[in-house]
Amino acid sequence: MKAPVPDLYSLFHKALRLGLTDLMNRMAVTDAQDREGWARIEDEGLVLQGILLKHSAHEEHFLHPMILAAAPQVAAKLDADHERLDDGVRRLGAALAGLGAVTDAAERADAAQVIYRELSAFIADYFQHLLVEETEAMPALNRHFPPDVMMQTHRDLVASIPPEEKLAELPLIARAWTPAERIMLMAMTRAAAPRPFFDAARKVMADAIGPEAWAVVAAGLEPAVVLS
Ligand SMILES: [Fe+2]
User: Fold this and answer.
1) Distance (Å) from CA 203 to ligand 1 centroid
2) How many A from CA of 38 to the centre of ligand 1?
3) What is the mean pLDDT of residues 177-199?
4) pLDDT band at 51 (very low <50, low <70, confident <90, very high)
């Protein structure tokens, strides 16, 4: 059987695409005067902001030097993308945080619409960036480096992420992945992580995807994993 070609981007990017489109659609259906609704959007936005900025920093630390060796022009584009997109994430976070202080109804409506449009424009830019990483950077890396080097880089990157950061990302990952991908992640977590972390992870995943989808994951993790 042919060994799978290393792909360090696509799975996590599915979670980022879900997080961003979810947030945008939550904005679309939340009335600007619904202060509680927008406070929840702000909370979710802040969590996503943290995930996006850390993801960008991980890529810059572990992958950009390798991309520079494999495909310097792609590396230059990705560096510029990261600078622009990180700025965009921070601007959006600040705009969302500022909405809570706007009390006038008309001003709130205007401000909420501006944030929604800016997020949609950011997503258009960000999704193009993800595509370049998946379809230009990753193939260039695989032409330049052997699979074991790429897989070790992946292990190093994952190992550098603190447990609490992994758990913060897990709801989006769980919701964005297929049943087989969820099972693979939980099987790897069970094999490699301390038991308390695995227990925390299965609770977070079960809460994120609901009992029916979790039952499929638990069945795939036989011997049975009972959620206590
Ligand atoms: Fe990136």
Assistant:
1) 29
2) 28
3) 95
4) very high
Banded model confidence at residue 225, pLDDT cuts 50, 70, 90: low
Four-way CATH pick for 1-161: 3.10.180.10, 3.30.1060.10, 1.20.120.520, 3.40.50.170: 1.20.120.520
- Report the Cα 79 to chain-centroid distance in Å: 19
Phi/psi-derived region of residue 30, left when phi > 0, alpha when psi is between -120 and 50, beta in every other case: beta
Residue 131 Cα to ligand 1 midpoint, Å, equals: 9
Q: Tell me how far the alpha carbon of residue 34 lies from the centroid of ligand 1, in angstroms.
A: 34
DSSP output for 37-55: HHHHHHHHHHHHHHHHHHH
Domain parsing of the chain, residue ranges: 1-161, 163-228
Distance 185 CA to ligand 1 centre (A): 22
The structure's pTM equals 0.93
Between the CA of 211 and the centroid of ligand 1 the distance, in Å, is 33
| Residue 216, SS3 per DSSP | helix
Q: What is the CA radius of gyration of the chain?
A: 19
CA of 217 from ligand 1 middle (Å) equals: 29
Q: How many whole angstroms from 49 Cα to the centroid of ligand 1?
A: 14
For residues 12 and 169, give the distance between their C-alpha atoms in angstroms, rounded to a whole number. Answer: 9
